[in-house]
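Data availability (excerpt). The following record was deposited with the supplementary files.
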Amino acid sequence: MPKNRNSFSSLALRRRGLASRAVHRVWAWVQETGAVTAQHPGRLRFRRIGTGTRLAFPQGTVFGEPWIELGDHCIIGEQVTLTAGLMPDLDLGSETVLTLGDGVVLGRGSHVIADTSVSIGSDTYCGPYVYITSTNHSYDDPHEPVGKQWPRMEPVEIGPGCWIGTGAVILPGARLGRNVVVAAGAVVRGEVPDHAVVAGAPARVVRSWDPEKGWQPPLRTPAPVPIPDGVTPEQLAAVALLLEDAADGA
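Predicted structure:
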């Protein structure tokens, strides 16, 4: 290949690299600027948005904010839908319709649809694409299209400390206790007791905690090694950087 062609290819690669870095810098600025917080709510006017809570940009569909309360230090991922009421601009009365406790995490692409009361307890973590709804289609009339029949609504209550796996669906009327684990892809309805693991569609209890016997059936994995006493967050962050560098060099 002629020397000038090599020089041209090298210049094109450098320009492409510069353009790529510029695009990433601009997108990072857009994400930071477009995030919603208590200090920078943008167009969204929630009944309450707690200290340290952040809705990542881009947001999903959000309406009925005057009837939505978000606790402190919640993490709302990109493209998460939060709605109160069947449609925008309805008067839903004086009571809060959708409540997120402190420290709730909603993964990317999740939906929380609160046409009637939905509450998610503190420190509940949801993986991506979780669907929580207080409304379901009815199909009583066989002659009428399902989408035109009036839906059924039942309150949903999710206790504190739960983990809801990727793609799980929480249906109207569901009541989850404390520290419940919902397996990925599970479809949950009805009542789930404290400290239970549910899986399947429809979901059923596959493991539960007994105060005398422990987990039944017993766990098949060893308990995680706890972080040693005295380790600071800064030290953990430094270890994470070392692991990232090692992975990049592998």
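Summary of structural features: The longest strand covers residues 204-210.
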